[in-house]
Amino acid sequence: MTDLTGQRVLVIGGGKNLGLAIAQKAAALGADVTIGVRSLREVAEGFQVLHLDITDEDSIAAAAAELGPVDHIVSTAAAHHNVPVAELDKTAALTAFDAKVVGPLLVAKHFDVTGSIVLFSGVAAWKPAPGYSIMGITNGAVAFAVSHLAKELAPVRVNAVSPGIIDSGSHDAMPEAQRDAFFEQVARGNLAGRVGRTEDIVEAVVWLWGASFVSGETIHVEGGARSA
Ligand SMILES: NC(=O)c1ccc[n+]([C@@H]2O[C@H](COP(=O)([O-])OP(=O)(O)OC[C@H]3O[C@@H](n4cnc5c(N)ncnc54)[C@H](OP(=O)(O)O)[C@@H]3O)[C@@H](O)[C@H]2O)c1
Question: Which domains does the chain have, with CATH numbers?
């Protein structure tokens, strides 16, 4: 069992869904946890909260100066722009890259991190679909980003988790019948035969925190969706 007693963990995007579950798990494993949120209204009970907008370098630099050294950083931040190429909005496309790729690079620039960084990719990178090009390309770039950052920041370990479709709460805004149909379609489209659970992803992050011989990798937690 990974023990994070005495370690400081920052979860960017930790205000809800996968990020919040990761923050809760880190706290349960003994860590001193801070969540980085872009709106301080999202205060999750019991956590230290830091203002951090990953698309804003000044905000990242200020958060790094305020928090000081950290053992582990996780970023779940995403700003998806799911539209057909014919409808692309340049500002939204660049924000999507800021949230997933450029922002994490600037986090690496400003924070004094001693243990590991875990970023979030996603299965869309390996399953091209019309209307999801920005999501796929940004998630794919995350896999390259962790490889390059791992080399440059060593011995700090830098890895990514690439989830499949997870019932994390991020689909809760869909009408229930539509969401159920979507999850059934997801279950048919992977080898595990089910939609992902939040615990599937949290377990992968916990493993990465303790995996001292793993760096530069993207861990696919998607029920074999790429092979289905
Ligand atoms: N859930 C899935 O099925 C799935 C599948 C593949 C990949 N993933 C990836 O896994 C990660 C987490 O997924 P999730 O389901 O937890 O997604 P989510 O519900 O969309 O959560 C994303 C988190 O990032 C925060 N965030 C967005 N922009 C930010 C910014 N500029 N600065 C700081 N924080 C920001 C959000 O805060 P706000 O409340 O302020 O928006 C939210 O807390 C994402 O990167 C997602 O792309 C998820």
Answer: 8-223 (3.40.50.720)
